[in-house]
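Sorry to interrupt, but I need a hand with the structure work. I would like you to pick a protein and set down its sequence and fold. Please put the record directly below this note.
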Amino acid sequence: MLGSRAVELIVTNLAADSPVTEASLSVLSADERARADRLALDVGRRRYITARARLRYLLAARLNARPQDLRFVTGRHGKPALGGVHAGRGLEFNVAHCADVAVFAFSWAGPVGVDIETVRPVAAADEIVTALFSRRENSDYRALGKRERLRGFFNCWTRKEAFVKALGSGLTFPLKRFDVTLTPGEPARILRVDDTPGAQCGWRVRHFAPSAGLVGAVVTRWERAGRPLYRRHLQ
């Protein structure tokens, strides 16, 4: 097990049969159960219940607590955090999911953000890049060959989304205020935040592929003395 500065990524499959899903309800709060009941599609309900229960079990294991006793609060822009007696324990977390794949990120070293996306055709990709990506990212994206652009688009999108999730600001922090690398095969890096060079901004991004056809990114506070990122897969 790595030290307290480690960032831990756990990738899990949200597919579960009905008995498992219903059993998971027992650790959810009344608000979570009510939200599950409001979901119209069975698949959405199953994924939500499984993801929330898994989050509770994973947090509880790291806090030496019971999953049903955990309380959550929501930040000004929607980022969840631990509340109640565990609010001051220093464990930060973030969750991303895509279809039946979920990624849970945990950090004892400060804020963390994670995002995953399926690499798929996006009809308006060029328009999204023009509207939301920075000038440098636009240039890097349009320098790619047509076959590389789709991967470049999702590399950029997941890295930017993970960063604003780590900040806890959502899209109130304009995506053009910072640059990330996006070229396939190039290491994931934050290049600039406003007028601060990426190497001095205090944040680090890492690329990962949770499963075939998916790309992901995780962003956390960076310390020179910090331990490296690692991930562990759950079956």
About this structure: The first helix runs from residue 18 to 24. Residues 225-235 have pLDDT under 50 and may be disordered.
